[in-house]
Amino acid sequence: MIMIVRKIQQQVMSTLNQGLVSIVYGARQVGKTTLAKQIAKNYKKPLYLNCDDPTVVSSLTEKSAIELRSYIGDSDLVIIDEAQRVENIGISIKLIHDTYPEIKLLVTGSSSLDLSNKITEPLTGRSIETILYPLSVEEVSVNPTELTANANIIMVRGGYPGMWKLSAEAAFDRLSNIATNYLYKDAFSPKVIYDQTIINNLLRLLAYQVGNEVNYSELGRKLSINDETVKRYIDLLEKAFIIFRRNQYRRNQRAEIGKLRKIYFTDLGIRNALLNDFKPLELRNDVGALWENFCVIERLKFIQSQNMRVQSFYWRNSDKREVDIIEEEGGVLRAFECKYSPKKQPKPPIDFTRNYPNASFSVISPNNFTESLLSGSQYKLF
Fold first, then answer.
1. Strand ranges in the chain using DSSP code E only, listed in sequence order
2. Rg of the Cα trace of the chain?
3. What is the pLDDT of residues 61-88, one digit of tens each?
4. What is the CB-side half-sphere exposure of residue 100 using CA atoms within 13 A?
5. 255 CB neighbour count, 10 Å cutoff
6. Please, which of 162, 166, 269, 325 could form a disulfide with 336 given CB 3.0 to 4.6 Å?
């Protein structure tokens, strides 16, 4: 199989070339190590340090600048993989960066909760953070003619890199294993206390509610836990890059409500594994929800790859009329409606056009998603 070049590779290399520490977040098995080793090929003496190894952890913990230099030697690039395993790793990285600025530092982590707590403050002004998401439909498509077919595959199988080397049956078995055995366990800190059964049930509830608004109180009643515990667990799952939230867009309009939010999965293969449902799209009754989640996450990946400064929301009024994606960029408002099989061309809700007459409106369907979902920049798709 041809090596897939990740879209964020040039961004990470640019950060390193600026003399800044590059921090790459992302779920386990999403391709962080592969990305780091691809970047390492551009250096003469790269050093890869895996912090799952206790010896590496010990060598990076509470060491002086001289001790750290003795450990990394004359490396021109140091990769610290799964850095959240190292206590006070931010201080060690700061020491290396400040004392030996000629050494490039690439740091990865599976949990933004752990890593940001340990690294953000010591590296203020010294680092740039990037999220590595599962493979995008652009990344797996060699040419534009493959985009639609690959979109259909991603909606069922997801974008974990390892899944694209396997047969459908083998991929489904692997995804089920990930969802059952270590989806979040190795991303949460050992110090984080959580109820595994409740988190499993919460994830399944969220999987069923993709495309619908989520009410923390309702989730709490179904799980027999309080609202604050629901919020805490959802926050943990988001910081482990399993789910992400979208808030409502509003400009103080009384007809718009803002207490609820939508929650999407960063990978649809994981979402389907939680429900043990890998049926093809033509046999599914949740294809509309899958398409909306696909559009939202693929748009997020595209925005990141193009360095677009965009804030993303959804819109809903008191009459329950919705617009799936709202983007605000430099005072410009864009609206997108995600329809897998539109019987007729949908129009934006009257309330929305009345309140935001200058907003653009596009319908994203499988027939046009390359023009609407994957656009908005001076760069070409391929």
1. 21-25, 46-50, 77-81, 104-109, 127-131, 213-214, 243-247, 261-265, 311-316, 322-329, 332-338, 360-364
2. 22
3. 999 999 999 999 999 999 999 988 888 8
4. 21
5. 12
6. 325
